[in-house]
Amino acid sequence: ELPAPVGDGLSIFRTGLSLVPLAISLIIFSPLAGVLVSKIGVKKLAIPGAFLGALGFYLNAISTTYVEQLACMFVVGAGISVVLTCTINLLVLTVDMKKMGLANSMNNVFKNLGSSLGAPMAASLLSTFTVTVAVGSQAGKAIYQTMPSAAAFQYAFYLAAGVFLVTAIVVVFAHEVLGPGKEKVDVRERMRLADA
Fold first, then answer.
1. Are 52 and 72 in contact (CB under 8 A)?
2. pTM for this model (two decimals)
3. Which value, to the nearest 10 degrees, does the dihedral of the CA atoms of residues 49, 93, 32, 69 take?
4. 46 CB contacts (<8 Å, ≥6 apart)?
5. How many CB atoms lie within 10 A of CB 12?
6. Phi/psi class of residue 3: alpha, beta or left (left: φ > 0; alpha: ψ in -120 to 50)?
7. Confidence (pLDDT) at 71
8. Using CA atoms, how far apart are residues 114 and 50, in angstroms rounded to an integer?
9. From start to end of the chain, where are the E strands?
């Protein structure tokens, strides 16, 4: 939305459309990840998913065109959907049924915490790394405006890529609960045992 040379000079509508590939990717890859996680396991799917998300943000940081940015958002969406699908399976299958409410609450707390911290951290980068550009003129005098620099957006994308890499490291230490060699989980049986 920001004017050139910092941004693409897009309308608010076209800027909003840039998130459509992310949504389409979530719609495609979430069900696919749900099917695959049972067959190959949480860790074998979550770690590549985290790397995929990191790759998408890294490529977004170095992209130079609007079309490249759209493609990068599709890749980011694939990574997000795979990681979220895997982590919720990991949570549900490793927690005692009697503590499921607490575990689900903590999962939501940490997702909200991430959302609450991510936006201010990105905003901090965008307000720290700025550039002043001429945006027009009036009565023969240039009108200048200070706005986030292209580097600020790159740093924000690098930060997001780093978060995905940390996620991959955390998953490495998780206990595998699905996939080859694991017993098929009977949720009804787990609930019956929890009630006993």
1. no
2. 0.82
3. -30
4. 82, 83, 86, 87, 90, 167, 168, 171, 174
5. 8
6. beta
7. 96
8. 15
9. 130-138, 141-148
